[in-house]
């Protein structure tokens, strides 16, 4: 029983760390909301975009903090997937590229399948807690993480050839790679004690 609690505790921690990394990824890619200037129309649009951005940021961080500070026995490891999964669903799409249109279409198609499996199986796993759903969710997340790593290295090589390097993009890629990988590893740990007939 103690070892099972330890596994669930590790899974819970992995999911919460993944959520924090996805929030950092969101801030790195979308930026902190700010009001843009310009003429009257542009100012109104800028204010609306600022309000929407602040609202989204508050809701995302608030939802994450609820799961972060709630007692583990109240939330549980599997439910702790929820904040990371919602943030991933909203902002977790990564621009996959392999350098050529044909290769791009292949990796984009495969990564889209993995993305859909992560979202569908992840949310279903939260409610039904079936091992098959947790396993598919976990391996889909690990596959998506591999696609992110491959795509980033291709982009990094292309940027090196062009003589450019984007530090913010590098940190954003590291954040989403680690977040998705932790979702996969945490998912495998959370369903390891279950049987296929659960």
List keywords for this structure.
membrane; mainly alpha; 198 residues; transmembrane; transmembrane helix
Helix content: over 70%
Going by helix content, strand content and strand pairing, the class is: mainly alpha
Number of helices: 7
CA distance, first residue to last residue: 18 Å
The coarse overall form would be globular
What is the chains' assembly state? single chain
Taking Cα atoms only, what radius of gyration do you get, to the nearest Å?
A: 19 Å
Q: Name the poorly predicted regions.
A: 1-8
Overview of this protein structure:
The protein has 198 residues and is mainly alpha-helical. It has one domain. The chain contains seven helices and no strands. Helix 1 runs antiparallel to helix 7. The two termini are 18 Å apart. The N terminus is likely disordered.
Short description:
The chain is mainly α and 198 residues long. It has 7 helices and no strands. The chain crosses the membrane at residues 9-28, 48-69, 76-94, 106-128, 140-161, 167-188.
């Amino acid at each position: 029983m103690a070892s099972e609690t330890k596994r669930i505790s590790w899974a819970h921690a992995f999911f919460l760390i993944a959520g924090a990394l996805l929030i950092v990824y969101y801030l790195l890619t979308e930026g902190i909301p700010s009001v843009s200037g310009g003429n009257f129309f542009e100012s109104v649009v800028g204010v609306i975009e600022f309000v929407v951005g602040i609202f989204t940021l508050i809701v995302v961080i608030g939802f994450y903090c609820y799961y972060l500070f709630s007692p583990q026995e109240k939330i549980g490891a599997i439910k702790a997937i929820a904040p990371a999964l919602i943030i991933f669903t909203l902002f977790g799409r990564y621009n996959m590229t392999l350098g050529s249109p044909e290769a791009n279409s292949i990796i984009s198609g495969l990564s889209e399948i993995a993305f859909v499996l992560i979202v569908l199986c992840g949310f279903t796993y939260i409610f039904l807690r079936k091992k098959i759903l947790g396993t598919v969710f976990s391996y889909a997340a690990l596959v998506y993480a591999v696609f992110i790593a491959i795509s980033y290295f291709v982009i990094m090589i292309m940027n090196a050839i062009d003589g450019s390097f984007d530090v913010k993009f590098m940190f954003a890629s590291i954040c989403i790679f680690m977040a998705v990988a932790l979702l996969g590893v945490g998912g495998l740990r959370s369903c390891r004690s279950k049987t296929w007939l659960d």
